[in-house]
Amino acid sequence: MTVTSGSKATSSRRAAIAGREGVAGWLFTLPIIVILGLFLVVPVGMALWVSFSDWSGRGSPFSGDVSFIGFNNYQDLLGGGGLAERDFGISLRNNAWYVLLVVPLQTAVSLFLAVMVNRAILRGRGFFRTAFYFPSVTSSVAITVLWLFLFGATRAVNKLLSYLGVNGPNWFADPSGIVHNFLALFGVTSGPAVLTDNMALGVSYWDWLSGPSVAMTAFILMAIFTTSGTFMLLFIAALQNLSGETQEAAMMDGANGWQRFWRVTLPQLRPVLFTVLTLGLIGTWQVFDQIYTGTQGGPGKTTVTPAYLSYTSAFSNQEWGKGSAIAFMLFVIIVVLTLVQRWVLRERGVSRRRMRAYLPAASATNSSALAVAAVAEKKDEVR
Amino acid sequence: MSAAVAPSIPAVAQKAPRRRRSGPGRKELIARSVVFAILIVIAVVYIFPFLINVATSFKTDAEAAASPLSLVPQTFTTAAYERLFLSSDFPVWFKNSVVVTLFVTAGRVFFDSLAGYALARLRFRGRNLVFLGLIAVMSVPGVVLLIPKFLVINQLGMYDSYSGMIIPLLADAAGVFIMKSFFESIPPSVEEQAKIDGAGVFRTFWSIVLPMARPALITIIILSFQGSWNELTHFIVSTQSPALTTLTKGVASLASGQLSQGSQYPLKLAAAAVMTIPVAIVFFIFQKRILNASDGAVKE
Amino acid sequence: MQRSKKMWAALGALATITAVGLAGCSGSSFSGGSAGATQNAGSPLTVLIGSSGDAETKAVTDAVAAWSSSSGTTATVSAASDLNQQLAQGFASGKPADVFYVSTDALAGYAANGSLLAYGDKLSNKDDFYPTLVSSFTYDGTFYCAPKDFSTLGLEINTDMWAQAGLTDADIPKTWDQLSAVAAKLTTADHVGLAFSPEYARLGAFMAQAGGGLVSTNGKTATANSAANVAGLQYVKSLLASGSAKTTKDLGAGWGGEAFGKGLAAMTIEGNWIGGAMKSDYPAIKYTVAQLPAGPAGQGTLQFTNCWGIAADSQNQDAALKLVEQLTSTDQQLSFASAFGVMPSVQSAADQWKSANPTFAPFLESADFAQGVPNAKGASDVITDLNSQLESIATGDPQAILDQTQKNLEAVVGK
């Protein structure tokens, strides 16, 4: 494939590049290229084809009797007027609310924890970090099972709430949206006609504004519980690297702790903040494990996410083209939002080297961000 | 937003010598106790669910439903564990998870460090292309691949086999970047000497550079272990045989009631507890590596 | 500027790798899975089942093993953790299981894409199946696969609570009004009178009793928002509003059997599958079964069934057909029935089954007026959507819910 021609080309050149290194370079990267190519790049190409085809799930999608149907699958989802469009709209609504709540909350909670742990006496630090980080280590399946128990039939959480005099909802069985519920407190139970009569993606504007359902809220709490530890570590690593000088100086200047945090610490944390927000955004648009394990999209379709819908469309309903189309639209959403966020939070005057350091982290998974931080720390030891 | 708001600090103050700490003052003590108290409360919130998890797995079904919050089972029973280990496929799931995790971890450590070293140190044509390709690949969300990954694995004849479960997980771009950035931080002079002595590229990498990369390797080990142990979607699309079910897939089917009717929570929570143990062990062994990474020279 | 150039370079590289990868793979290996499998009389069979539990898995495994040793064809049984997903993967890979369970709502999809062998007319015991079951597995006028067994809904009654409320056998409800009355009598501080899952697969029975149904009898027209269906759901609403009935969700139970077995409800609406669960999980509960009460249009209930699908890509269809004939034979069905509580799909086994299971006879007797669930392609999505709205039936508007369902159903029925 391309690899061999590349190595030939390099070995024939006797310029500044030593031939031995050229060959070795390709050989060293070959396993990664082959594996990622076969299991990441090729699949994406295949999925793209399937999303434009009428393949119904029998035999190969490349066989002669599968035909190209253009944007039909996408049209059905974006303007078909049928159930497919409505389901896609519902899944987007559910996940958008999830993202909207989880990303800011997990960032705020992890930053708060980091600042607090950073202030704690040295002896307690290790314990607190372990306690807060532990949920991030466990598998999403195990946590979901635990959550089903705590918020589900036995209502352990509601028992706790009742000690506080709060009458908890029937978490995983409650499809009502929390924004709607909030409005209902003021007697608003149905929206104005302009919101209820107009639709986007088969869902009325009023329903777009429903907020996450109570069941989804339980998943939102779970996401914060399981991710805040990871991000806390990132923030702690960054906090430790801040110059004490500036803090001291601000102290001398008479700024109180709060002002110091807002005006000195936070601006210095911007690169980490950027990483955390980006990771959060990418992660939260791909909710699948919890739904597959926990609610299978119920109650009332309020926990269906695009990822889960894509899966069920293909594997349960033989709508492979639609499933792939949903996956691609999700892909586009994630890429676009990430780019928008990068633009909004762009940092001027950063050297290219530093930018590159954050680039991988910005598109990696949770754990790799942690690793990037850990390695960044380790460098000092080696030197 | 503009760049960092520069606080108006007089030049004198910047050069001021650091004030010596003459023991914490009273105000400082109060502040610290408040911080401590808040942290304790939050820590309890974070730990309590896991304690409930373990306690419930030793309860009877009836008691789990009646008093979900108690941390001491009234009638201590290991029935859930007996059922799990003696009359279900749980041991098979466990074995599969172990096999996959060991292979994936070993493979990732080797391949990621190889590629990371090449990208950091070796000058070859197309290096930037490979680098950018990796970045592009990393931006593909995993769930997009659910459907096509199955198709590819299937076409390669690896469906429903260990190879189909392991090989696709062997490389991860993030790990390559971690290794790359680490190797870049090692001074090149070390290798130069080896080169002068006439060692080959691989030998230089294997016996000189790699041993220096222990911290980064440990990071990769932890991440690979966690990643493959907790992986679910890949196993959903790469296998169907009960003999190849991993813990995540098995426990998920246990939870969604396809294999058990009703809500046998002690059983499910016992499964969740057991599947958490290995990652917890790895975490506690290496936690100093992860968590104390930032405990550098900061002394109070 | 520099960056965008690099981005394009990367994208170009990706495209190249994709193209090369596809070209490399599309040669020989991507042309598999064409229609019409080669037949090989000796090749072993695989059987994939969506099992309800250990009892069912064991019974099917034993039955297949017995057939295997008498016929000389090797056959292995595996229980799926997610049947639909595994079938889909099997069909896509061109190597599906030879014999497998197919639910009524999955039939149309598999039949439409040619994954299923339409062998119904080749069955020697074809005329023995209940006609309603045959029509459930008929797609485009072709009888595809043999019903393996079936279930209907009935009313389960906790006899202790019944007696405590001062009720006797004469009080077993025959009409909606009587049902409301006994439910109210049975409701105490500790339990409700009646519990049911808020889904079409239970509430549909009330629609049937009112004379409705999601589709017309010939399955060609959508009739979801008929007045009868609205009346059925209105009655359900009135039951919930009275407080003497609750949904399983409100009771924190996974299904009616759990609410019933834990003593949270004195009556529930479930099928004959409840027998196994009561025996193994809730042996202390004493109960009896009655036919569901009649509605304004007479008696009605829903019927559920699965069939034995045979893959069109099976390497050994003849042997698979013989295996299915054996598995649906009268004797074999009776032994399945005693193993995991299903009802035989063949009429010749009815009398024996009733005398063996006197408590459960009402289920089988309900077969005469049982209504199948729609089996058009896409109907399962419509029902999923309907279920999502039925979950909040207590506060919902039946007319609006059914109008929405009608719109969705029109898009898939009669095509």
From TrEMBL, chain A:
Entry-linked InterPro entries: ABC_transporter_permease, MetI-like, MetI-like_sf
Gene3D superfamilies: MetI-like
Topology with respect to the bilayer: Multi-pass membrane protein
Keyword hit for Cell membrane: yes
ABC transmembrane type-1 domain boundaries: 92-341
Localization terms from the record: Cell membrane
Transmembrane segments: 23-52, 96-118, 130-153, 214-239, 269-288, 325-345
Family of this protein: Belongs to the binding-protein-dependent transport system permease family.
Full protein name: Multiple sugar transport system permease protein
Organism encoding this protein: Subtercola frigoramans
TrEMBL record, chain B:
Membrane topology: Multi-pass membrane protein
Region (Disordered): 1-24
SUPFAM superfamilies given in the database record: MetI-like
Biased composition (Low complexity): 1-13
InterPro entries cross-referenced by the UniProt entry: MetI-like, MetI-like_sf
Domain ABC transmembrane type-1, residue spans: 94-286
Alphabetical keyword list: Cell membrane, Membrane, Sugar transport, Transmembrane, Transmembrane helix, Transport
Membrane spanning residue stretches: 29-52, 98-120, 129-153, 165-183, 204-225, 269-286
Compartments (UniProt record): Cell membrane
CDD domains: TM_PBP2
Family: Belongs to the binding-protein-dependent transport system permease family.
This protein's name: Multiple sugar transport system permease protein
Organism listed in the record: Subtercola frigoramans
Automatic annotation (TrEMBL), chain C:
Keywords: Signal, Sugar transport, Transport
PROSITE patterns cross-referenced by the UniProt entry: PROKAR_LIPOPROTEIN (PS51257)
Secretion signal span: 1-23
Top-level taxon: Bacteria
Signal is among the record's keywords: yes
Protein family (similarity comment): Belongs to the bacterial solute-binding protein 1 family.
The protein's name: Multiple sugar transport system substrate-binding protein
Source organism per UniProt: Subtercola frigoramans
